[in-house]
Amino acid sequence: MSSLDRSDVARLAALARIDMTDEDLDRLSGQLSAIVDAVAKVAEVAGSDVPATSHPIPMSNVHRADEVLPSLPQERALSGAPEAEDGRFRVPQILGEEA
């Protein structure tokens, strides 16, 4: 049985920048524990001869030729922006890093 508690869920929520109520934290700690337990059971069954997959049905990307086509001029694209700088959209800093 997994031992994800309320503080684990609160830490995950903080990392994901999700604001949660006390009720959300209590409810999700049980739900996330059940998910972790289910994944652990699958890991027990899957041996080294079972390849890791993300989808049960093989998927493939559809590619098209990369060709240059006429596009929106930079000035026009930036004309509706609240702020622009050096030919780019200017957005608020969110990660606390130096530019």
Number of helices: 3
How far apart the termini lie comes to 45 Å
Structural class: mainly alpha
How many DSSP E strands?
A: 2
Topology summary:
Layout: H1 6-15, H2 22-45, H3 74-78, E1 84-85, E2 88-89
Helix pairs in contact: 1-2
List keywords for this structure.
single chain; 99 residues; mainly alpha; two-stranded antiparallel sheet; 3 helices; 2 strands; flat
Task: Give an overview in words.
- The chain is mainly alpha-helical.
- It has a domain of 40 residues.
- It contains three helices and two strands.
- The model has no long low-confidence stretch (mean pLDDT 87).
Brief write-up:
With 99 residues, this protein is mainly alpha-helical.
